[in-house]
Amino acid sequence: MPLSAAERDLLITRAGGCCELCGATTELAASAVAPRPGDSADETILACRTCREALDGIAEPDHRWHCLSESAWSPVPAVQVVAWRQLEQLDTEAWAQDLLEQLYLDEPTMAWVRATADAEPDGAAPVLHRDTFGAVLNSGDTVTLIKDLKVRGANFTAKRGTAVRNISLVPDNPDQIEGRVNDQRIVILTEFVRKLS
Length: 197
Fold this sequence. Notes:
- The protein is of the alpha+beta class.
- Helix content is 28%, strand content 20%.
- The protein is built from six helices and twelve strands.
- The strands form five sheets. It has a three-stranded antiparallel β-sheet with strand order 8-5-12, with no helix packed on it. It has a three-stranded antiparallel β-sheet with strand order 9-10-11, with no helix packed on it. It has a two-stranded antiparallel ribbon with strand order 1-2.
- Strand 10 (176-181) and strand 11 (184-189) form a beta hairpin.
- The radius of gyration is 18 Å and the shape is elongated.
- The N and C termini lie far apart (39 Å).
- Mean pLDDT is 84; it is low at 117-124.
């Protein structure tokens, strides 16, 4: 459902007439932030065509997402959700993972981030990742290692007690998560971690 004229005016005013991700001032349009319907300014962002196409997977804009270094700090929850999701997609970019480790989202906003990530097609139950004690792990959680782990392909051992922040879940394998240890992104078996509350 498209925004009403009043909601569109609120969105444009909030954004200052600029793309809320990169700051561009041309070809702007409201973009709903899933899974919300986008019928209010609070559920949408104002984005330029290039950002919208990149978010929709129509275009791959190379280094375009360095703009998130600024927009991720927006006080607007819808912008925070889009920035967080995009930073998680950039899992091979050290700067993006470093930025994720610095960011904090309140519980309702993080629930919005996870809302589409946790949804499964055809009503199937979501794949749950659980730590060694059975606690459900979510993307963005912090875990600690419960034993020393030799990292394959690297010349170090991840030590017991090491905190791994802002983990990512391996979508097709509930026994694996990803995280940064010693500035390297590694895959970790869930049986070797404990979730920090």
